[in-house]
Amino acid sequence: ELNASDDRGISVVRDQIKEFAGTKKLFSSGIKLIILDEADAMTNDAQFALRRVIEKYTKNARFCLICNYVSKIIPALQSRCTRFRFSPLAEHQVKDRVEHIAKLENVDITPDGFRAVLRLGGGDMRRILNILQATNMAHDVVNETNVYLCTGNPLPSDMVAMCNWLWTESFEACVRQCLNLQKLKGYATMDLLQQVYLNANELELPPHARMYIYDQLAHLEHRLATGTSETLQLISLVSIFIAARKLISDNPSS
């Protein structure tokens, strides 16, 4: 097995992988399994070399390539593999296991803290356990507030207040309150944007207003990703909802 911490240049394929795949046990006819984690980080030269190794030693070895972006795997390798896509785990799939781990480790976790861990984990078991462990080490009790404080995500109560401002307050008042909230709690604008988007998903909005909000939020996310001012983009976030409110009031039935 080779993972992200190992070298994955062409020399590794030519030496380590080829040598391992080419050897056979004297008293066993079993097939070897070679697992390459984060194979998309391999150079193109290494992937082309791996293609030849796969072709040559297919009788006594099987290769498992694990990657995040299949587009970074060269077509020659993709055509020689059967692709499986694994979606994030559903809540019911991780719930019992997390409860079992929390019980074994004597973690004092509340029901709202448990829901917060699952929500922020997003179906990623490793992320869920990291959040649980970090919160347990930082606080005596794993509750909702402590989970959000430990991960740096906006508290649900703060997001309820912010979304209420976006839909009811004037532009000046909303900007002032949002900037004060960000300054007081240290929230990243990208995190606020993601939570506002999730809130908008749950609202019953006219199609034209919903499309406008989604389009503008996408542009805002792009600007944040390119390194623009977070304060400026937070003000832009407020202006998006002020404009959406005007769209709804001018044409509520569209």
UniProtKB/TrEMBL annotation:
InterPro entries: DNA_pol3_clamp-load_cplx_C, DNA_Rep/Repair_Clamp_Loader, P-loop_NTPase, Rep_factorC_C, RFC_lid. Signal peptide: none annotated. It is found in: Nucleus. GO terms for molecular function: ATP binding; DNA binding; DNA clamp loader activity. SUPFAM superfamilies: P-loop containing nucleoside triphosphate hydrolases (SSF52540), post-AAA+ oligomerization domain-like (SSF48019). Residues 154-239 form the Replication factor C C-terminal domain. Keywords: ATP-binding, DNA replication, Nucleotide-binding, Nucleus. One of its GO terms (biological process) is DNA-templated DNA replication. It holds the Pfam family DNA_pol3_delta2. Its main location: nucleus. It comes from the Eukaryota. GO terms for cellular component: DNA replication factor C complex; nucleus. Belongs to the activator 1 small subunits family. This is Replication factor C C-terminal domain-containing protein.
